[in-house]
Specification:
The protein is 76% helix and 0% strand. With 103 residues, it is mainly alpha-helical.
Length: 103
């Protein structure tokens, strides 16, 4: 929900910040803790599972960020010269003669 922008969309609709839900560590910890207590686990086990889950959530979020950056690089490598390259080439030819030379 954080990575795909659901939380920021909800924040825009309700016109309030949701700091605990917006943080992947905090939201994972509290949701897992509430769920574990709801299903009947004791407090110590619930807290341990919640801490472990929030730690794993950090690494998953970092992995998603890495995948995003790889996707952006690949997308830019594939589509940087597609439709705009012809227009950019014609623009560069027209403006090269009017550019000032650097000293």
């Amino acid at each position: 929900m954080n990575h795909m922008g659901l939380v920021s969309a909800v924040e825009e609709v309700i016109k309030r910040r949701l700091p605990i839900v917006n943080c992947v560590k905090c939201s994972t910890f509290w949701l897992v803790l509430i769920f574990c207590l709801f299903i009947g686990l004791d407090v110590i086990t619930s807290a341990a599972i919640s801490f472990l889950s929030s730690y794993v959530a950090i690494w998953i979020e970092l992995f998603f960020g890495f995948i995003d950056s790889c996707y952006d690089k690949l997308y830019n490598a594939i589509y940087k010269d597609s439709a705009t390259s012809d227009q950019a080439d014609s623009d560069n030819k027209d403006t090269e003669s009017t550019k000032d030379a650097l000293p």
